[in-house]
Write a structure and sequence with these properties.
Blueprint lengths: L1 H9 L6 H15 L5 H5 L12 H15 L2 H10 L11 H10 L2 H14 L9 H12 L27 H37 L1
Length: 203
């Protein structure tokens, strides 16, 4: 319900929808980029310039995409109109976009088109379905319950609303930070091995 969502804003910035969207970007980049865990576990390459890796930013974008392509339009319109961030007066087309970006049908069509257009997007674009997979158990009943079977059915999983369960919110961030920490450890170890191998060849 909208009243539930407004509750998230009333609790302060920690529980805001913006932090939820940011979490999806951070998790997507950790799980679906060559800088995150997939790249860290790979035996190829020793590039230390992680910030220049395009899959990092692509995965972050696809991680936040389902929200910014729907609710983000409403929030941006209100913000630039000087109305701040409002959870009221959300137009019907925004809810339509929310259903598209958070449904299996929307994901299947969008992901297929992306990979057909640029095959290298197969990994970072997985941050999109990952976003929806995380939303399923962390969105309770109401207008923002994940419409996974739209437009064929209104059935769905009634999860635990993250904005009403602080432990769930913090646990998610701990998991994302942990994933990045593991990735950093594996990446650092690989860079050291590469440096040692280069030194041996130089001798």
């Amino acid at each position: 319900m909208l009243s539930e969502t407004r509750y998230a804003i009333s609790r302060g910035p920690v529980y805001s929808g913006g932090m939820d969207t940011l979490f999806h970007g951070v998790l997507g980049a950790a799980a679906c980029s060559n800088v995150g865990l997939p790249g860290a576990l790979s035996k190829r390459g020793c590039d230390r310039r992680w910030f220049a890796e395009w899959t990092l930013w692509a995965a972050f974008f696809f991680g936040v995409f389902p929200d910014i392509a729907s609710l983000g339009i409403h929030f941006a319109t209100n913000f630039f109109a000087g109305n701040g961030v409002r959870w009221t007066g959300i137009p019907d087309f925004v809810f339509f976009l929310y259903r598209v970006t958070h449904s299996l049908l929307g994901i299947a069509l969008g992901y297929s088109l992306l990979v057909l257009w640029k095959r290298a997007l197969w990994l970072p674009a997985l941050a999109w379905p990952l976003h929806v997979a995380v939303d399923l158990p962390t969105h309770g009943d109401g207008v923002f319950r994940t419409p996974i079977f739209w437009p064929f059915s209104s059935a769905g999983f009634v999860g635990w609303s993250w904005w009403q369960h602080p432990r769930l919110f913090y646990s998610a961030w701990v998991f994302a930070i942990g994933l990045w920490s593991v990735s950093a450890i594996f990446r650092a170890a690989r860079v050291r091995r590469c440096s040692s191998a280069s030194g041996s060849r130089a001798e």
